[in-house]
Design goal:
- The structure holds two protein chains of two kinds.
- Chain A has two domains: about 70 residues, Glutaredoxin, CATH 3.40.30.10; about 130 residues, Glutathione S-transferase Yfyf (Class Pi), Chain A, domain 2 (Up-down Bundle), CATH 1.20.1050.10.
- Chain A starts with 5 loop residues before the first strand and ends with a helix.
- Chain A has eleven helices and four strands.
- In chain A, about 60% of the residues lie in helices and about 10% in strands.
- Helix content of chain B is about 55%, strand content about 10%.
- Chain B is α+β, with helices and mostly antiparallel strands.
- Chain B has two domains: about 70 residues, Glutaredoxin, CATH 3.40.30.10; about 130 residues, Glutathione S-transferase Yfyf (Class Pi), Chain A, domain 2 (Up-down Bundle), CATH 1.20.1050.10.
- Chain B contains eleven helices and four strands; from the N terminus they run βαβαββααααααααα.
- In chain B, α1 links the parallel β1 and β2.
- Chain B has a four-stranded mixed β-sheet, with helices on one face.
- The chains are: A alpha+beta, B alpha+beta.
- Chains A and B meet through β4, α3 and α4 of A and β4, α3 and α4 of B.
Chain lengths: ~220, ~220
Amino acid sequence: MADEDVVLLDFWPSPFGMRVRIALAEKEIKYEYKEEDLRNKSDLLLKMNPIHKKIPVLIHNGKPVCESLVQVQYIDEIWPHKSPLLPTDPYQRAIARFWGDFVDKKIYDLGRKIWSTKGEEQEAAKKEFIECLKLLEGELGNKAYFGGENLGYVDVVLVPFYSWFYAYEKCGNFSIETECPKLIAWAKRCMEKDSVSKSLPDQDKIYDYVLHLKKVFGIE
Amino acid sequence: MAEVKLLGTWPSPFYYRVVWVLKLKGIAYEFIEEDLNNKGPLLLQHNPVHKKIPVLIHSGKSICESMIILEYIQEIWPQNSLLPADPYDRAIARFWIKFAEDKVNPLAFAGFYGEEQKKAIRDSLEMLETTEEHALRDKTFFGGDKIDLVDIAFGQLSQWLQMVEDVTNVKLLDASKFPRLQRWINNFKQVPIIKENLPDYQEMFAYFKALRVMLLSSK
């Protein structure tokens, strides 16, 4: 197969970018990682994602793919020979897509509310966040990963948020592990894989970044 | 016992998406109407997470979220394919499906007034501009010569948008500003399956007019 040209425009703390890093690593695809300064977006980013002007952007042989869930599915379809992420059975695929969509609809926004609000709003966000994680624990069941015996689509979509859990806990003054031990055990299991541990930043670095954001936005 | 059941509610555009695709592929199904003010056990059993319609029940297995249902139908019944075969083209289609999911929601507009409505108007116009210039461009349909899942995802622009414009007296899709989209709406509504499966306009208008009055009086 001819050399593939793969470029990823990304921003190190982005859980959406992490999804793509993990997927590419699982497939053992070499790529060029380009860090974007979101206050000073590159011409390449603006050209490759003119609609949203957001990262991550996957550029494959010069052609851009945007939106992390779309990118993960694309990577899975282009390189199907190694580490399949979506199941082959259509019903199982629908279940995986459903939970990927659930994570996308809930986790980022609730997490954001936990670190950026206080009082009742923060308490409500914490409560709903834990409820969502418990639903995900239910879906995981006794499996090692959401994908079964190996990492699958839902694992790739969800595990990046693990790097943000410490920041959520410090800002929200609660312990996620106390409420959802099975999910933390799952996350640690994922972190034993190079494709995950090398794609997620250190949780202290994420917490420092959140403190910086709070300063910038004038949040106590 | 029907192999395929669809839980839905008139006049939800999300329910209609599934109707259109089932009929485009010639799949027989049983329609079960849900009363969203009094959700039945079937709905609660088959969509415990969101408790929303539409839900597709295929041989007892439930699939939720309209666009996920459509990808499932596309995979189980590939005849009259509604997604591109090429993975890159498919990624582009999915990008626009997500855009439609996130940005196209004319029914929500029916509940706004004042400052909220002003913002919603700006957001809607931006969405329509992007759709006309980048998604549709000069094609007849989003899918090219014939409709595909992207057209289905944008389906709400075909009838629900006009109905909301009439209920709120706000013109969003001005044909002179959005000629391509206006042409798409006309073409889309002429596709036989779509034409035969649209909610009755007058009934829908009356329903949402009453809903808006109720919403505004409670604010």
